[in-house]
Amino acid sequence: MKNMKKTLAFVSALAIMGSMTACGGSNDSTADSAATSQTTESTPAKELDEDDKAAVAEMDIGEDETLENGTVKWLSFWDLNPANGKPKSVELELFETKYGGKIEYIPTTYETRYSDLSTQVLGGTSPDLFPAADLDTFPGKAIAGMFEPFDDYLDFDSDLWSVGAKKLSDAHTIGGKHYVAVVSTDAGCVCIYNKRTIDENGLTDPAQLLEEGNWTWDTFKDMCMEFSDPDNKKYGFDGWWFEINLLLTTGKPVIDMQDGVITSNLLSPEMERAENFMLDMNKMNLPLPKAEYNWVEQPQRIAEGTTLFYPCGIWALYEADLTKFGAEGEIMFVPMPKDPNADKYYLPSGVDAYALCKSAPNPEGAAAFMKCKLMAVGDETTQEIAEKQYREDYGWTDEMIEMWHKTKELTNENPVIDFYAGTSSDIYDMVHNPIKDASYNGKDWATTRDEISGAVQSEIDALNKQISENF
Predict the structure, then answer these.
(1) Roughly what angle, to the nearest 10 degrees, separates helices 382-394 and 50-57?
(2) pLDDT at 66 over 90
């Protein structure tokens, strides 16, 4: 089981990286909506070596199932087929080997993906699978009828599902039906830092604090206070990912979904405590003052030793060149710090997740690919393959890999996601920037809460009414 948990951390990383990078503003897709009905040929992938292929071929999928149609149509702003020499995923090799399957990529852009999906569904040319890792797919788009449940094709009570993936798949239900298949969890946010900077400033390594069970909001804040020197342009942390992910360590998302009912936690004591904590750090001038940098994050300051922490999605470390964070051997990370008042170590979770499109022409093939992803996550033979890819393609050290194991294990135990991006555009607009105001602008949370909570609840009530009437 321990090795299985470790494997989980790696095999879905490329899929998650593609989604999270685009969400983070790095989408380099050149496809426009007029091209979304065309398939594209990928640059030849970096194939698995013969020993790795043999290991995949020996994996037991538990059935002698063949597909009448092996082609799965994938509409997205990133391709499941690797390109430009990137490594081929174990799940794709497994799908091709065991099912004779292939992924037909239908390109779109991040901005037009939903309008392109609607056009294709209405035009009778629906794709099969759609990415749900950005957490803006559910519940709003399911309520609008853009997706169908997986339950006729996937058994969500089978042993294939890990604890975290099972929990979050079950959270994506309406009327007892699963509208998103979360095949694995991932670290939604980690605190990247430079070990040389830690050492030169006489600070305790956060990895050591984590090992001791003492990596908390308080120790994070203490380190930032000791390091920061605004007069000399030294600050505790930077990045766009800190605020929402600190909130999630309370175990209470801003907008939650339980048993098919949408709820708001804007009035919760957990939200107030987290926001007041961030307000205190703003008053101490601990965060990088983004306004002075044209509201552009400055990750290179980690290597320069002028910013202590860079909270960000783990995808930031899936690059060949990590010199913005430091030289080889200097780069390290830990999960988000624990809320000292929480009953468990809750962590923000990224997800490798998929939605089944309305009128999908090949739901059986889509389900088979999901099973291959689950098999790749859970099979110990993929461990060595995955670790080799991380070392060779991203230059990770053994220390980074072991920390990733630990972070993944902790996340999988108590994963937390937020549904505010997936409810409606109105709720997103009302919530997204205001929950950052305490940290960015030093605005009192009680004022912010009173300004937005009533309107947010009205939107939620309307969505819950649609669910009760139609599902």
Answers:
(1) 150
(2) no
